[in-house]
TrEMBL record:
Coiled-coil stretches: none
Listed name of the protein: 3'(2'), 5'-bisphosphate nucleotidase
Organism: Nocardiopsis algeriensis
Record's keyword annotation contains Metal-binding: yes
GO-annotated molecular function: 3'(2'),5'-bisphosphate nucleotidase activity; metal ion binding
Keywords: Hydrolase, Magnesium, Metal-binding
Cofactor(s) needed: Mg(2+)
Length: 263
């Protein structure tokens, strides 16, 4: 591995390399046994990222979806929050590109760096060079809300009806937030339950690019908490945030769904 100068580059390079590993694993194993491929993908990417961070940042703690939660992270000043394979369902389906690798750094109470690799799309979005957001949405364009392709929350469907918005089904949470960053959607809203690793890296990149990111009641997204459950999230263009938070508040019989990974 080449010499890496700073935390932003660590996040970008490790997410990219883990994604390349997953692409090779996908090609080598094939899709005949999807459950086996999912398990291999989770484990292979986690082991690579955990080992690389241990070598490059030996004093830092790590919170990973696939690793045991070490309570020492709560006493650490710096914690890497990783999702080695976000969108395992899509990873194990031929032709799907909406899966990701997340690598983020939390430092002194804030997200300090992050990267989301989209390996099957051949790109990595990171805080090294955040995507450029157009200053304005095209006039008259219908709002687009990206939602889960398998379990879109009913409250989001009701919200779309009120706003006259189009729903854009997609796989992993990282891919959904990246779709807002890349202008393929305007809004990502979710309230079915998630964990910190589902959103830390994409939120770091989204904020660096100028997007709004919060809980659906407008409060701050907090990371490296004792309980990593982070039940809901809103990511959108900043000029839409006030209207969307009001719509969520006014609409608000949210689905009573329990926590699940992804979304």
């Amino acid at each position: 591995m080449k010499s890496i100068r700073d935390d932003h580059e660590v996040a970008r390079d490790l997410a990219t390399e883990a994604g390349q590993l997953l692409m090779r694993l996908r090609a080598r194993h094939g899709f005949a046994e999807p459950d086996v491929l999912r398990t291999l993908g989770d484990r292979t990417s986690h082991e690579f990222l955990f080992s690389a961070l241990g070598r490059l940042r030996p004093s830092d703690a790590v919170l990973s979806e696939e690793g045991a939660d070490d309570p020492a992270r709560l006493r650490s000043r710096r914690v890497w929050i990783i999702d080695p394979l976000d969108g395992t369902r899509e990873f194990a389906e031929p032709g799907r590109t909406d899966w990701a690798v997340h690598v983020a750094l939390w430092e002194n109470g804030e997200l300090a760096a992050g990267a989301v690799a989209l390996p099957a799309q051949g790109s990595t979005l990171s805080t090294v060079d955040p995507p450029w957001l157009p200053e304005e949405r095209p006039a008259g364009q219908r709002l687009r809300i990206t939602v889960s392709r398998t379990r879109p929350p009913a409250f989001v469907q009701r919200m779309a009806t009120r706003l006259g918005a189009e729903l854009v089904p997609m796989g992993s949470a990282g891919a959904k937030i990246c779709s807002v960053l890349l202008g393929m959607a305007d809004i990502y809203v979710h309230a079915g339950g998630q964990y910190e690793w589902d959103s830390a890296a994409p939120v770091a990149v989204a904020r660096a690019a100028g997007l709004h990111a919060s809980r659906i009641d407008g409060t701050e997204l907090c990371y490296n908490e004792a309980d990593p459950l982070l039940p809901d999230i809103l990511v959108c263009r900043p000029e839409l945030s006030g209207m969307l938070l009001a719509s969520i508040r006014d609409g608000a019989d949210l689905d009573s769904a329990g926590p699940h990974a992804g979304g």
